[in-house]
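Folding follows sequence. Below is one example:
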Amino acid sequence: MAVKKFIPYAPVGSDWSDKERLKRVSDHFEFMNRRRSLREFSSEPVDRSIIEYIIRTAGTAPSGAHKQPWSFCAVSDPAIKSEIRKQAEEEEYENYHGRMSDEWLHDLEVFDTDWHKPFLEEAPWLIVIFKKAYDIDKEGKKKNYYVNESVGIAVGMLISAIHHAGLVALTHTPSPMNFLSDILSRPENERPFLLMPVGYPAQNAQVPDLKRKSVEEIAQFYG
């Protein structure tokens, strides 16, 4: 039987007024609303300690039964990035030449993108997120719970931390992504979840002129 151990919770903002809370949350929204996904990266290096803290922030995410079923592989080695780009472009070529439906290709037109992915080498860092389908210890396999949900939350916190650091990123999914497991020699219990180039924006970088849905379109309030 598991030993139950609890410690006092240290609340944050318990002395804040509603006015201060509103100011903080509205300021945070305005800051996060400036976040954009980029495909044009500067080659300017980013200090490893910054990436480490970004990953540590993602690791504070909640997870099913506190299993923390994630691994973050941070890649700056040019040779590894080159190999990732090579194999990602092979998969993307197949996607753009038969795997994707006409509707999918039409929806991608606004991004003016194709199977070429130079950002996989241009960005100073690639963070490859793996989900742990199960854990392994000396006794064998151990079940993880709500793996996709847990890793998805952690990725959201990762993206927020990247933006907070004044960096940019792109959520990239060159499906299928099994080649990432081979290149990075990941264990059998890990599955590639997301490939994310991270760095500074290229000079004069541009993004599509897109609008986010309003709160009226994404939320319903009851009561």
Notes: The mean pLDDT is 96. The chain has one domain: 46-202. The first helix runs from residue 18 to 32.
